[in-house]
Design brief:
Shape of chain A: globular
Helix content of chain A: 40-55%
Radius of gyration of chain B: 20 Å
Number of helices of chain A: 8
Number of strands of chain B: 2
Strand content of chain A: 15-25%
Distance between the termini of chain B: 39 Å
Number of helices of chain B: 13
Largest sheet of chain A: 5 strands, antiparallel
Strand order of the largest sheet of chain B: 1-2
Oligomer: heterodimer
Order of helices and strands of chain A: HHHHHHEEEEEHH
Shape of chain B: globular
Radius of gyration of chain A: 17 Å
Largest interface: A-B, 49 and 39 residues
Structural class of chain A: alpha+beta
Number of strands of chain A: 5
Largest sheet of chain B: 2 strands, antiparallel
Strand order of the largest sheet of chain A: 1-2-3-4-5
Distance between the termini of chain A: 10 Å
Order of helices and strands of chain B: HHHHHHHEEHHHHHH
Structural class of chain B: mainly alpha
Helix content of chain B: 55-70%
């Protein structure tokens, strides 16, 4: 199960994968996800051996494609909740950075598990497009032939549409991290948590 | 999700429940409805102790039994829940789906050799999972306080009681009521436990395993209740009054 969730997470990274410059005016989140996943799979397909041999390059690719579509600072604030009160913006960003670094390296490690050409489908937008909160639904093909649902919470920012939460089979990462990290920060301080995130010692419920 | 259970355990649960009503307070309850957190944590600790015995057995089972056999056992128990799903699909006015469940049960119980083989899935008949707790949620009893059941683990008041009611017409529940049913429960328990072995490390390394289990369970349950499409969390609630001062750069 843990393995499965990790695979889902990795697949989730794919859905984010995109290029900053791809975000044209008027592109809705569904189009963004669809278009960019297509591109990332092509890239991975064509250079599979290279990425297999060079995990750092893969991590860089993930980072380059992933970050522009993520509102990491906002996720961090949601996760920190009350514990973030009174923290400087720099501190929140430092926390966000440490968190996302850990996730990116996890994603990159597992990316190579996917060799299927169409491991993911993006379901059509349902209902009105809400700039404050829009759910993008995807279905990821699992190695065993099954399909797993991964949804994203998007909102519109000054940098265009960005995701700030991943929901795997109904389980929101923001919610789940939040209830682990918020009390941790309140008890031990933000610096202790950041240090452990940087050292990879803090499990993010993968 | 739906299991019957020996009556004696229900009695234990209910008595624990009643004793819990006397003034337990929430400590870490974020948006989660857990007013009995103090009590629940005690039951969690009890279950954790019980797990010292159960886990090694589950690990042994997982090691010894080949995967296809384990899958068969899982299928077998899942098939036995079909009547509960069927009844609750009717209660939720899911007519077409209940027909699927009916044929699924018929086919798997016969051609699938008492449910060991999930022939119906191979024939493209979809699997659904319903129980009384989900039905009550659909009927409007949406928020129920979190309740950690001894032995059975995470639940809510609504789901805990519903579980017992479902067991009254569960085929095995009916057949074994008042008899020596321990064999069934032990095998089922080991099978269930073995399914979660992979998550142990994650739970152990959590800052607060009790909260992690509660969050994951609650969200999975919502996912079930809403048939795979629950509404998004109320993120605004996470932010309100939590905002670090003078920040509005997230562009909403």
């Amino acid at each position: 199960m843990k393995k499965r969730v990790r695979i889902l997470l990795v697949a989730g990274a794919f859905a984010f994968a995109g290029n900053l410059f791809a975000q044209q005016d008027g592109a809705d989140p569904v189009a963004l996800v669809t278009e960019t996943t297509g591109r990332i799979f092509t890239e991975l397909d064509q250079n599979f051996e290279r990425y297999q041999a060079d995990p750092a390059a893969l991590e860089a690719l993930v980072r380059k494609d992933l970050m522009p579509l993520l509102d990491v600072h906002y996720s961090a604030r949601l996760i920190l909740g009350r514990a973030g009160r009174g923290l400087t913006k720099e501190k929140v960003d430092e926390f966000a950075e440490a968190m996302i670094n850990l996730l990116v390296s996890r994603y990159a490690k597992g990316l190579l598990l996917f060799s299927s050409h169409e491991p993911l489908r993006v379901l059509p937008q349902r209902g009105e497009l809400n700039e404050k909160l829009t759910k993008v639904r995807t279905r990821v093909k699992l190695p065993n032939g099954g399909e797993a649902p991964i949804d994203y919470a998007f909102h519109k920012t000054a940098d265009g549409w960005q995701a700030f939460d991943v929901i795997v089979e109904g389980i929101s990462y923001v919610t789940t991290f939040r209830n682990q990290i918020m009390p941790d920060v309140r008890a031990n301080g933000i610096d202790s948590v950041i240090a452990r995130l940087k050292g990879g010692d803090l499990e993010l419920a993968d | 999700m739906t299991h019957g259970r020996p009556f004696i355990l229900t009695a234990v649960v209910l008595s624990l429940l009643l004793s819990a009503c006397a003034g337990t307070q929430s400590r870490n309850t974020d948006p989660v409805y857990d007013p009995w957190e103090g009590f629940n944590r005690k039951v969690y600790a009890f279950n954790d102790g019980l797990d010292k015995v159960v886990r090694p057995i589950a690990v042994g089972y997982d090691k010894i039994m080949p995967d296809p056999f384990q899958r068969g056992v899982g299928n077998f128990f899942r098939n036995l829940d079909a009547p509960v799903t069927f009844v609750n699909q009717i209660l939720q006015a899911k007519g077409t789906q209940s027909v699927d469940t009916f044929f699924r049960f018929l086919i798997n119980s016969t051609v699938g050799l008492l449910g060991f083989f999930d022939v119906a899935s191979k024939m493209g008949i979809p699997y659904y999972n319903e129980d009384l707790g989900q039905t009550l949620a659909k009927w409007g009893y949406e928020d129920s306080r979190y309740l950690m059941l001894p032995v059975f683990g995470p639940s809510t008041l609504r789901d805990g009681v519903s579980r017992y009611v479902d067991s009254l017409y569960h085929p095995v529940g009916r057949a074994i009521h008042g008899r020596n049913e321990w064999g069934y429960w032990i095998v089922r328990g080991i099978d269930q436990r073995a399914r979660y072995l992979d998550q142990d490390a994650e739970l152990e390394s959590a800052y607060d395993p009790y909260v992690l289990l509660r969050d994951v369970w609650r969200q999975s349950r919502q996912y079930q209740i809403y048939d795979g499409d629950p509404p998004l969390e109320d993120y605004d609630l996470y932010l309100e009054e939590d905002l670090p001062e003078a920040e509005s750069d997230s562009g909403e």
